[in-house]
Amino acid sequence: MKIVTAEQMGQIDRRCAEVGLPTSVLMENAGKAVAEEVRKILGTVDQQSILVLIGPGNNGGDGLVASRYLHDWGARVSLCLLRQRPPDDLNFKLVKERGITCIELTQDENMDRIDELLLSANAVIDALFGTGKSRPLSGIFLKALDRVSRVKKKQAGLHIIALDLPSGLNADSGAVDPACLYADNTITLGFPKPGLFNFPGAERAGKITIVDIGIPSDLAEAVTTELVTNKWAREIVPQRPLGANKGSFGRVLVASGSINYIGAAYLACSGAMRVGTGLVTLATATSLQPILASKLTEVTYLPLPESQTGIISAQAARLMRQQLKYYNVLLLGCGLGQSKSTMRFIRAMLFRSKSALLSLVIDADGLNILAKIPNWWQQLTNDMILTPHPGEMARLVGVSVDEVQSDRFGIAKRVAQDWHKTIVLKGAYTVIAAPDGQVRISPFANPGLASAGSGDVLTGAIAGLVAQGLSLFDAAALGVHLHGEAGEMVKARLGDAGMIATDLLPALPLIIKQLKA
């Protein structure tokens, strides 16, 4: 599912007209699709009181079409026009022919009418601007949205539904006007927009639904940003041949753990196993091996020499390099710590190998140590997967966390291309960027995943998928998707408070099972 900017959406609309799909047809399709989705959201529309805010452009036209369908299905629809529609507006003519209540909020003295309609409304549909508003909201638009917002605070049951985008939400950046409503649902048309998946806009969008309005998919073929979907995941999840053996599903070597972060090794190895990896070997400090062996009975071990209790020695790199030929992927960093000997170990592993390293996944302390090495990517020229959270990304790039969060798509894409690395920028709506400019966005924002160890499970899952033969970009995106779906499964059972990383582990194979069903 392509994610398109406002400019790209405008180009697609123009292409539609060229291939025989004029605006009038798309508007009819969009309005009907929105009405059908509103019916699903509300459960029924019969005798429901629905107030529709109609703006001056195509978003308002879509709202008029939706209003007509909702009226015909039994809803009590009222329209508030915040700008006069053109005299030849067929859709406005059709709603007037049905006797639908319509007031023009073009003067301040009419504002009391919107208060009356809001008091009896079950739902409000925001059809003011969609992607067509870039200037600050002002005048009658500001006042109308403020009235809706005030009533919503008093009447929590008032359902706010945005058509395409909440008005005042920047389609590309996710920046919001202060008057932008907090929608319960956003029904976006044809293709989702980047601003729906970037904060603060993502907080205003509520639950996002994408509806088909008849745009041929090939018109967006050149777009390089996509939303990860179950359909895509189902097509790419590794197959399990009946005649397979453990070697068929790859081998992962995990260098992880230190005296203060023993659990990270357990979670990373378990994440790799739970996505179907054939063999996982944990390389960890010798004194930690007996502790982890009591929990990780299915992995094999490579005990490493220590500089002090529970801390890997720099000399361990030589032993590790001797073992690399037996594995498909090396996962490096989870819970290693940042002691001087650990830093020397990671430097030796990455920069002193005489032969090319196998596929690499680097997380956590591996990333923090790389951040201290100027222009490290010029020495490590091969593609590899980096899985930073926003703080780690900020350290890698040398900017603030706020700067990272304000342009997650842009910074991940730029870094992936400049460094020739596959980037997984974790967080709500995780961004996966490839060196060739492709970007995939996870559809999940789950606060339950914001807990210690969740990222270790994710990194292990990604490494396990690389070992099973997926490309780095596909493995990264599929790992993020499986992890996100597992989080949704756990949230449905436990809620999003108190969810812990180990809750995700048994959910991962269940998600894979569902994809294959």
Describe the overall structure.
β14, α12 and β15 form a beta-alpha-beta unit. The protein has a ten-stranded mixed β-sheet with strand order 8-19-18-17-16-15-14-9-10-11, with helices on both faces. With 517 residues, it is an alpha/beta fold. It has two domains: 218 residues, YjeF N-terminal domain (Rossmann fold), CATH 3.40.50.10260; 287 residues, UDP-N-acetylmuramoyl-L-alanine:D-glutamate ligase. α3 packs parallel to α4, α11 runs parallel beside α12 and α17 packs across α18. The model has no long low-confidence stretch (mean pLDDT 95). Helix content is 42%, strand content 16%.
Core attributes:
Rossmann fold; about 525 residues; 19 strands; ten-stranded mixed beta sheet; 19 helices; alpha/beta; seven-stranded parallel beta sheet; UDP-N-acetylmuramoyl-L-alanine:D-glutamate ligase; 2 domains
Give the termini separation: 21 Å
Q: Write the CATH homologous superfamily of the largest domain.
A: Ribokinase
Question: Which CATH architecture of the largest domain?
Answer: 3-Layer(aba) Sandwich
Coarse morphology = elongated
Strand segment count: 19
Quick take:
The chain has 517 residues and is of the alpha/beta class. It has helices spanning 6-18, 23-42, 58-72, 90-97, 111-120, 139-154, 201-205, 230-236, 262-274, 289-293, 316-323, 340-351, 365-370, 390-397, 401-406, 408-419, 454-467, 472-494, 501-516, and strands at 49-54, 76-81, 101-104, 123-127, 159-163, 185-189, 207-211, 225-227, 251-255, 279-285, 300-304, 306-308, 311-312, 329-332, 359-362, 385-386, 422-425, 431-433, 439-441.
